[in-house]
């Protein structure tokens, strides 16, 4: 998969995109990541990529000409590309969108800055606008790194364990169960004995129930979305542990 990141601050991206899973995926040829400096396509002597907004108002707006030239340059190299603008006005990023983007062969990620990007550029050249949350960042570089990381890890063969991505938090609308490792006792607290039982069916049931309990307590909005997706065996288990009525009540109050 190809990621092209367009930014006016390329140095912000260098180190994070050369570590851990992303570095290994690059070395294995599973992803290719290139960073393009939008300033290289500015035509004035000061390499200006922003200007004052028409109509007045605060801040500056990213100019369309250098950004258009930068987009065209990466499309020439790779023939196409799904163009994504990282913007507070975009649709909310979640695991469903991660899976959607992972099906693309080439993502062009535009790191927005200042008060935004000229709308004419967006209308003619941007396929998607994405926001990573209801808060404001200085620019889209951090959001671009989040997209590269989250999309890379769901690509086939990137993670060492084939089940890791499928069983992550948000692979379904449940938070992940608590995790434990050695030592067995830490500061007087032992790990749950079921995890030492060797009974994989019991362990899976325990983890499922703990996942449901955690989601009920921390993200009732998610449990409401998951309500209709429990299997017959899961419903039976939830009823046995007096959790199903809690889920149903939460769903009625929260909505699907």
From TrEMBL:
CDD domains listed in its UniProt record: TrmD-like
GO molecular function ontology, one term from the record: tRNA (guanine(37)-N1)-methyltransferase activity
Stored Pfam families: tRNA_m1G_MT
Keyword Transferase assigned: yes
Intracellular or extracellular location(s): Cytoplasm
Catalytic activity of the protein: guanosine(37) in tRNA + S-adenosyl-L-methionine = N(1)-methylguanosine(37) in tRNA + S-adenosyl-L-homocysteine + H(+)
Entry keyword set: Cytoplasm, Methyltransferase, S-adenosyl-L-methionine, Transferase, tRNA processing
Major localization listed first in the record, in broad terms: cytoplasm
Residues reported to bind S-adenosyl-L-methionine: 112, 132-137
GO biological process, alphabetically ordered: methylation
Entry's EC annotation: 2.1.1.228
Residue ranges of domain tRNA methyltransferase TRMD/TRM10-type in the record: 1-224
Function of the protein: Specifically methylates guanosine-37 in various tRNAs.
The family this protein is said to belong to: Belongs to the RNA methyltransferase TrmD family.
PANTHER family the record matches: TRNA (GUANINE-N(1)-)-METHYLTRANSFERASE
Subunit structure: Homodimer.
Annotated protein name in UniProt: tRNA (guanine-N(1)-)-methyltransferase
Lineage of origin: Bacteria, Pseudomonadati, Thermodesulfobacteriota, Desulfobulbia, Desulfobulbales
